[in-house]
Each structure stands twice: as C-alpha cells, then as structure tokens.
Amino acid sequence: MTTTPSASRPMRLTPTPSSTVACSPFGKTSFIPFPCGSARAPAGGRVDTVCARPREFAPSLALRTSRHHPVAMDVLPLAILAAAAALGWNWWSDRRSADRATLLARQACEQAGVIWLDQNVQRVRKRLARDDDGRLAWRRDYDFEFTSSGEDRQLGRISLVGLRVVGLVGPAAVPLVYVRR
C-alpha cells in the first residue's frame, strides 16, 4: 500500500496491523493507530496530520452549525431546556417558601392572640444571602398584616433564608421575635 512520493500528493503510510484508515482534517488519507499501535512512513516519506479517531468511531451526533451562526445549532434546544428547568425550580422554591411563611404568620398570630388579616403573605424582597453553613441561599422577606383590636392594621414581617426563619417582626407576644442580619 505504499506509493511513490509526488509533488501533488503526499506519500501514504505503511499500515501496521493495528492501524485503520481515516481522513485528516485537511483531506489527506492517513493511518491512525487504533486502539494501540503505530504508523510508519517508508524511507523518505512523511507523516500526514491525522484525526484523533478513525471516521467510523466519530460520534454520530456531530454538532451542526448554521452558515450564518457559528454557534452549534444543537446547543439551542439544550439551553432552552436548561432555562425552563431553572425557571421551574425557582417558581417551585418560591411557592414552597411562601407556604412556609404563610404557616409561620398564622402560628405567630394565633400564639399572640391577634387576628391575622387577609390570610396571606406578600413577598417584598428577594436577595442572595449566606445560610448558617456559609452557603449561598435565597433570602425572602414576606409582609403580613394583623390587628389586635379590629380597628387598625399593623404590619409584620417574616424573613426566611431557604426555609429557615431568620427574622420575625410582628405580634409582640410571640417568643420567636428576633431579627438576624
């Protein structure tokens, strides 16, 4: 399988028993050692640039690129799926912490002997904070309203880092009143 060198074509290599044929990135035919082995050039020959693997072992899901967009076209659906998953996780996490804040507001008002108005909480702030272990987590502040006499509205606030209470300002008789910043 050896040819004579010419000016227009590079010389082919002599295959060893463990070599297979593949194309180089520049369209030249070469021999690639696969899985282990070596290729030898005949006397006076040169070794061409070769691919890392033979063509038959290349992955079938090659990245397709558009002629106008250098970004691989197969990445776009994955990015959309990842963004949708992140938004879904964020919504689920917000709902879970709002449910926890609702439960805590109800318990705080019952323990203090006051009336919890509107039976809901409203998130007023969301930011990143560190939890007790030093990891980043969402800190969410929720407001709720209560009354002791039935005539005036008073504002209470619950602060959560993750699902853990870090602050409760509200009904005075609640033993859980503390604010940690």
Polypeptide structure, described:
This protein is α+β, with helices and mostly antiparallel strands and 181 residues long. It has two domains: 13-60, no CATH class; 93-179. Helix content is 21%, strand content 30%. The chain has a five-stranded antiparallel β-sheet with strand order 3-4-5-6-7, with helices on one face. Strands 1-2 form a two-stranded antiparallel sheet.
Task: Assign a percent range to the helix content.
Answer: 10-25%
- General shape: elongated
Largest sheet: 5 strands, antiparallel
Give the averaged pLDDT, no decimals.
73
Give, in order, the helices and strands: EEHEEEEE
What percentage of amino acids are in beta strands? 25-35%
Computed Rg: 34 Å
Count of discrete domains: 2
Uncertain segments are 18-24, 28-38, 53-62
- Cα-to-Cα separation, first versus last residue: 78 Å
Count of extended strands: 7
Strand order of the largest sheet: 3-4-5-6-7
Structural class: alpha+beta
Tally of helical runs: 1
Summarize it.
This protein is α+β, with helices and mostly antiparallel strands and 181 residues long. The protein folds into 2 domains: 13-60, no CATH class; 93-179. It has one helix at residues 75-112, and strands at residues 19-23, 29-33, 115-130, 136-147, 154-161, 164-169, 178-179.
